[in-house]
Design goal:
The complex is a heterodimer of chains A (335) and B (132). Chain A has 335 residues and is an alpha+beta fold. Chain A is 47% helix and 25% strand. In chain A, helix 6 packs antiparallel against helix 7 (197-211) and helix 7 (197-211) runs parallel beside helix 8. Chain B is an alpha/beta fold and 132 residues long. Chain B has a five-stranded parallel beta sheet with strand order 2-1-3-4-5, with helices on both faces. The chains are: A alpha+beta (335), B alpha/beta (132).
């Protein structure tokens, strides 16, 4: 290719091109570069080009260049460069070392104006941040509304004296609180759709211990749970299951001031997740199903939730009572 | 339990993936004198149960487990019935949490018998079931 064609290529290719020598100093710029900055090749040479870099980007820009240069590595970076009309534009600058007859000869770099993409990107980032703030606000309101529902239930209880009715309201209140616990966690959740299983189950069990006066009865709730995250939909159902099963254990396994322990486990095992609520209380006679120790609505809920999660329910009566819910594992890709 | 047995007014298939929503519908469907003949959690299950039980009504949630939604399920039920030269299909009553125009226009493309917006008002469910 004759030299004039190289010149044609360099000056007409729609990218801004620069070249530096082995001394790091820039020694050539193509016409698109010079037209963009509206300066001469003499003004731009050496570190002259750096005068046009936005002051906020300059240190980073020079550091990236120098570090890559010293390591003879390729680099790619964004920075703002002042255009001939004084407007700063975002450039994507990609540089790579070049060699002449096997000997390091300097760097070539090419730049494209990515301001439009950058603006679009910034808008998306801003919109996402606004969406997150809105969602947190919504979770906050959902949580508050659930607390208000608890208030409504409590007020309703003031007018009742039938122990069965009061008990039903108490159960209802506990279920609403379990749902609120999910939203409490969601407000501070990183991605606003998943919460940490261990934190969630621990705080839920702490609430249950308080409401059932576990401490003063000498009953300990021990939680062992995966640290990983669980999706909101599943978390609500899990929370309700933990609430039902743990409440059952606290209410029925330790009569007459009997102390003991309730172990709540949420653990992954191969392709399954096991939710287990095990107490070392009085146990249930072998012939009695779990139903017998559970109020009717509670058992219906347990069965329904397990079914919604495509799980299965087993009871272990070896010592005390263990209720094991086996669920398909959802935290791994492909499962 | 009612001592007097009353005739069942019709059979209803509930298509809904949330247990508590199913229970709500089940309680009110029974209260209005209808029988629940099945519950499906996904579109394919809805199609299978509709063909098996031939319900008079399908209470169809739009958002379901899996890829297909309730509108897909309703269309598939009618396609399958047409394929076996069945001229009468179930009345589809959509129950949707979304009143967004995109969802509603998708539903209306399938000639719904009725559309109920969640939270479902029992009297509206009753009116839809008891409509001539």
């Amino acid at each position: 290719m004759p030299e004039i064609m190289f010149q044609e290529l360099a000056d007409n290719a729609p990218v801004m091109i620069w070249r530096s020598g082995p001394d790091k100093l820039c020694n050539w710029f193509n016409t698109p570069w010079l037209e963009f900055v509206g300066r001469t090749i003499e003004q731009e040479s050496g570190y002259g080009w750096a005068e046009g870099v936005h002051p906020d980007d300059l240190d980073r820009c020079v550091a990236v260049y120098n570090n890559a240069f010293d390591a003879r590595e390729k680099f790619s970076m964004n920075y703002r460069l002042r255009r001939h009309d004084g407007v700063y534009r975002w450039l994507l600058d990609t540089g790579a070392p070049y060699y002449r007859e096997g000997k390091f000869a300097g760097y070539f770099g090419s730049c494209v104006d990515v301001s439009k993409q950058r603006e679009a990107h910034d808008l998306v980032v801003q919109a996402l941040a606004e969406r997150d703030a809105l969602l947190r606000e919504v979770y906050h309101r959902v949580k508050n509304n659930l607390q208000q529902i608890e208030g409504l239930i409590a007020i309703e209880g003031l007018t009742l004296s039938d122990p069965k009715a009061l008990h039903a309201l108490e159960s209802l209140s506990g279920r609403v609180r379990a749902m609120g616990a999910v939203h409490q966690r969601l407000i501070t959740a990183k991605n606003l759709s998943d919460i940490f299983a261990r934190d969630f189950i621990s705080s839920l069990c702490a609430d249950l211990a308080r409401s059932q006066a576990a401490d003063s009865r000498g009953i300990v709730i021990r939680v062992e749970a995966e640290a990983g995250e669980v999706n909101i939909e599943r978390a609500v159902i899990l929370g309700l299951l933990v609430n039902e099963l743990t409440t059952n254990a606290l209410k029925h396994a330790f009569p007459d001031g009997r102390p003991g322990e309730v172990a709540v486990r949420y653990l992954h095992k191969d392709a399954e997740t096991i939710l287990e609520i095990r107490d070392n209380g009085i146990g249930m006679p072998a012939e009695l199903p779990l139903r017998a120790r559970t109020e009717h609505s509670g058992f219906r809920l347990i069965e329904g939730f397990v079914d919604q999660l495509d799980g299965r329910l087993t009871i272990d009566r070896a010592s005390g009572t263990g209720v094991v819910v086996t669920l398909p594992r959802t935290d791994r890709v492909g499962l | 339990m009612e001592a007097v047995a009353t005739a069942v007014k019709g059979r209803v298939l509930i298509v809904e993936d949330q247990f508590l929503a199913v229970e709500f519908l089940r309680i009110w469907v029974k209260a209005y004198g209808f029988e629940v003949c099945g519950v499906a959690k996904s579109a394919p299950q809805a199609v299978a149960l509709a063909l098996e039980h031939r319900p008079d009504y399908v209470l169809m949630d739009v958002r379901l487990e899996g890829e297909k939604d309730g509108v897909d399920a309703a269309l598939a039920i009618y396609d399958k019935l047409a394929a076996i030269q069945e001229s009468v299909g179930p009345r589809i009553i959509y129950c949707t949490g979304s009143s967004e125009p995109s969802t509603l226009s998708r539903i209306s493309a399938d000639h719904p018998f009725a559309v109920l917006i969640k939270p479902i008002e029992p009297s509206e469910l009753g009116a839809a079931l008891l409509a001539p």
